[in-house]
Amino acid sequence: xxxxxxxxxxxxxxxxxxxxxxxxxxxxxxxxxxxxxxxxxxxxxxxxxxxxxxxxxxxxxxxxxxxxxxxxxxxxxxxxxxxxxxxxxxxxxxxxxxxxxxxxxxxxxxxxxxxxxxxxxxxxxxxxxxxxxxxxxxxxxxxxxxxxxxxxxxxxxxxxxxxxxxxxxxxxxxxxxxxxxxxxxxxxxxxxxxxxxxxxxxxxxxxxxxxxxxxxxxxxxxxxxxxxxxxxxxxxxxxxxxxxxxxxxxxxxxxxxxxxxxxxxxxxxxxxxxxxxxxxxxxxxxxxxxxxxxxxxxxxxxxxxxxxxxxxxxxxxxxxxxxxxxxxxxxxxxxxxxxxxxxxxxxxxxxxxxxxxxxxxxxxxxxxxxxxxxxxxxxxx
Length: 381
What we know:
Helices cover 49% and strands 12% of the residues. The protein has 381 residues and is of the alpha+beta class.
């Protein structure tokens, strides 16, 4: 059983010096496959659902190569890693579509707290009840994926005390999202929120993980993990995805894995526990002290990730994608982007220099992967 996988990738555009510049109107007008966000400083692309990790790697890289070439032709613009306005600009919103009433609402309600870049990982699960159970488990374990992906330690040229400033500040909406006990519970709850105005539309459910599909909340076919900061290295992103997929296969195969039946805590207590874990992971990422959802015992994020890794390795091997899972060890060993950037800053490298180095490293990594791997792979579509 290999599952379909796809990504929604948001990235900032700007100068090689790290200044973030709003270019989404030009990009949307001139390139296929890119979508605008409410603020014009970042742009989104979506990969088609695919089973095969090699193909997925190229699906991540190819639109980015096209976008880079276009940005270069405009005025030597580039793509900027990180998930926040690292150097400057968080005091104002740059609207990409001033006529869009939903964007009006977002700007007025949340301001620039939502002007972030991230990656949403979508994995296909067609049975709605299995999907709801998978969402319950992964909501409890989402802080681990945040811990691996942290890439926003800076805002407006300063350190913030977070490894993921994005998730530390992000307005999770509505304020309280329960663990959905069934598909019927999810449908009822979403309709209640729409009627009350706490959700403006079916997309306005901003939580670490949610069920997704073509006609929400009724027709659902995938789990969407929304908590991750932008992971610019495709190999690192695929390693996290492989961990998520292997864990989901384990959950699908074993109906007893369920926080509603396997935990010492009530559903309400579980929500409180995982929200605390999310904030701990946003602050200290891999070094965060978290509480297990099963019994509340304390464990470091990196140790919990290593445990799940060991637990699902044989599943990934059996399904033929363990070579994409193994680079996770490098993240646990060397730290995520935020930790590496903070380490540089700690030894005296100023934040702008940290970011300009990261911009260059990101581009070089993409070029290396593109030439090594994607040129030799026959890619569908």
